[in-house]
Amino acid sequence: MTWYEIFPTISTSFIALSAILVAIGWRLIILRKREAHEKTMIAAAVAAVLFFLMYTSRTIFVGNTNWGGPESLETIYRIFLVFHIVLAMVAAVFGISTLVLAFKKSFAKHRKLGRVTAVTWFVTAITGVTVYVLLYLMYPGGHTKPVIDAIFG
Ligand code: HEM
Q: pLDDT confidence of 1, banded at 50, 70, 90?
């Protein structure tokens, strides 16, 4: 395995882990275990931040991966990828807002937004893992330049 494959494997595992923690955290609050809910959701947020740091550093220093599958599927793949990226950005904004509401003790609003955040994060994780499977397992792709090389040559 090269660095091109190791980074995405680890970062994708962090998205999956984060989504699993959100599911566990949701279950815990349904069971009225507030403290455990808080700790589990903070762990989920840390996993999401670690994913984001890995993803951005890979984009800067290693580079992204091009579509390597059949040309006939490329457009569909690109639409799917954009959907995943937009969803991830929405989930990040919702996630931060959900945490802020919790720390401000606005629990009624937190509860409403928390449900939307959790579902958005589940779909983000599922689409993220799908992108990983398409790019690295089903059709190993080509590599693009790291952003740092594109800028500094
Ligand atoms: C991004 C992280 C978080 C998410 C996605 C999240 C999600 C949720 C969800 C979905 C519920 C409603 C459960 C239901 O009724 O079906 C909820 C309730 C609750 N959350 Fe969170 N939560 C997060 C972080 C936190 C944190 C950090 C705290 C503590 C400071 C917290 C405290 C609570 C409390 C006390 C409730 C119960 C509110 C009530 O029943 O009125 N949550 N959360």
A: low
71 token code pair: 């040309």
Q: At what angle do helices 34-61 and 3-30 cross, to 10 degrees?
A: 160
CA of 66 to the centre of ligand 1 (A): 38
Report the SS3 class of residue 122.
helix
Question: How many angstroms separate the alpha carbon of residue 146 from the centre of ligand 1?
Answer: 39
Question: Ligand 1: residues within 6 Å at CB?
Answer: 22, 26, 29-30, 34, 37-38, 41-42, 45, 95, 98-99, 102-103, 107-108, 110-111, 114-115, 117-118
**Could you give all domains of the chain from N- to C-terminal order, each with its CATH number?**
3-152 (1.20.120.80)
How far apart CA 67 and CA 74 sit, in angstroms, is: 7
- The model's pTM: 0.91
140 Cα–ligand 1 center, Å: 39
Q: Which residues contact 130 (CB under 8 A, 6 or more apart)?
A: 80, 84
Q: Which tens digits make up the pLDDT trace of 80-130?
A: 999 999 999 999 999 999 999 999 999 999 999 999 999 999 999 999 999
Angle at 45 between CA 44 and CA 46, to 5 degrees: 90
